[in-house]
Automatic annotation (TrEMBL), chain B:
Gene Ontology terms: biological process: transmembrane transport
Ranges of residues in domain ABC transmembrane type-1: 96-306
Keywords linked to the UniProt accession: Cell membrane, Membrane, Transmembrane, Transmembrane helix, Transport
Topology of this chain in the membrane: Multi-pass membrane protein
Protein name: Diguanylate cyclase
Compartment list: Cell membrane
Record organism: Teichococcus deserti
Pfam families referenced in this protein's UniProt entry, alphabetically: BPD_transp_1, BPD_transp_1_N
Membrane-spanning parts: 12-30, 102-123, 135-159, 179-198, 237-263, 283-309
Amino acid sequence: MSSSIFDSSPGDSNPGGDFAAREAAIALPPRNTALRRFCRHRLAMAGAIIIAILVLGSYLGPYLIPYDDTFIDIMQRFAPPFSGAHILGTDELGRDMLARLMMGGRISLAVGFTAMVISMGIGILVGAIAGYYGGIVGAALMRFVDAVLCFPSIFLLLALAALIEPGVASITLLIAATAWMDVARIVEGQIRGLRERDFAVAAEALGASDLRIVFRELVPNAVAPIVVAATLNVAKAILLESYVSYLGYGIQPPTPSWGNMLNNAQIYLTSAPWLAILPGLFITLAVTSFNFLGDGLRDALDPRMENH
Amino acid sequence: MAPYLIRRFGQAVLLLLVVSMIGFAILHLAPGGPMAQYAIGSNMSQEDLDRIAQQLGLDRPLPVQYAEWLWRMLGGDWGTSFRDGQPVLHVIGSHLGATLQLMLTATLLAIFLGCWIGILGAIRRYSVFDYLATIGAMVALSIPTFWFGLVTIFVFSVELGWLPAGNRETVGDGSLLDMLHHLIAPAMVLALVETAIWSRFMRSSMLDVVNQDYIRTARAKGLPRFKVLTRHALRNALLPMITVAGLQMPTLLGGALVTETVFTWPGMGRLFLDSISYRDYPVVMGILMFSAAMVLIGNLLADMLYAVADPRIRLG
């Protein structure tokens, strides 16, 4: 299943959309032009490099700077960026912004990555079962996917988050619980197509178990769209974390995340705009990078699916 | 056409049924379940609570409860808000106008801008504009909507002082001009993601059409390029956009929730968030079901409109 620009063919009953639409809408322009190749690979490469810098910065950075992300220094409140000892300034409690952005990056990236792994696990499992067995089981599973997709992700995520005790682990699980459906659709389509192919029929004729056919024969052959979906899912998960944390139902302070750093930044928009601008820049940077990387991977891994 | 419509409608109803089951499950997952309104901050004893539970039928098997809950919902009884005792449908209804106004304005803005960018990108394929539009769309899809809202407020309200920082109208004013003035920023913010999506789909659709034989024929028989583009190409390229429009409902609703929060816009999204913080489960559930229904109706309408607009689509 191609998840390129024209994913949703006319008449396709696809109640999805939402973040999926955001991804589906992307595919860089033309083929076979030097400009395009240059552009596409440069952007995917740039994405990979930025992701590497963000990960290294978040995990090693805190050891390299002299400030702690939780150290409150009332005398140093609202120090603007590039003006003194604190390179990116301080927040409303005088905490170093750079240190908080780094620690927040750890949380946001870890939540994004872990949620991706979990949602891929659920999505691949549901998609594989539905695609392989088909029939009533497959139809029931996919209709369930359709039904969950009817809820806008943010609504579903907030409603569920309100029911539980918010924490890093529970929020990660909830994000995964609202992000697996598109993966299930992609995998289901792939498996359904692949299981009729000769090699799958041969494996079946040789007496291989269902489990073996699915996970040793079919899923490995669908690895390209799965890898692409996984990359885009990290972007989606980071975005979802930022939404739910910004709205106050995600990662709870004092643990910083890029999303919850923006939670009360709006109050200080007039006096200390960097509190709002900096974390958002990092979210945008990370999400854009994963999206470009996913787009580049799609191009590199799956030459068959090309539109224009 | 009739059998097709009936089948599609039947599918939608079935899907809505599954959606309602998920909704019912969430309501019963809520701490205290539907009893929460009596348990929170009330001076009722456990005996009172047990009696009420029995009176409300909460001691009966879940399937029975589900059937009754569903029956009531179909009859328009969506429960009462914990917060002010108003019927849920009434509460949602009083916030719906603001949301629809915002969504509609943003959609129109996005359709206009998105189609324009998409068409231009398709006509001048591989141009600098095309590349910038592509990269711009990717970045636009990656920006958290609420952050774009904050930046918009910072630039246009704090720094430039051109636009109000929030709310739907100035208290005591309420003129049309004042409302439009308040509408600009949130509509712009909500339109960003939509514009990116529309421009990508429009570009793709336009490219599909431009490469068709009848376009070459039209050009070959000497029609001017502009006329071919507007009369032949655009008409057909806009057709699939009906489907795109129908699929935007979840993105729009989610975006509206966030935009309304940033701009203190008194719509359904903000109501949802307020209701969550008040633990007002009936309203939370109501909005969840309502938005899911809107998504389904959007899909259904898109399918039908597409079938009506494109005679090539065989129904049945």
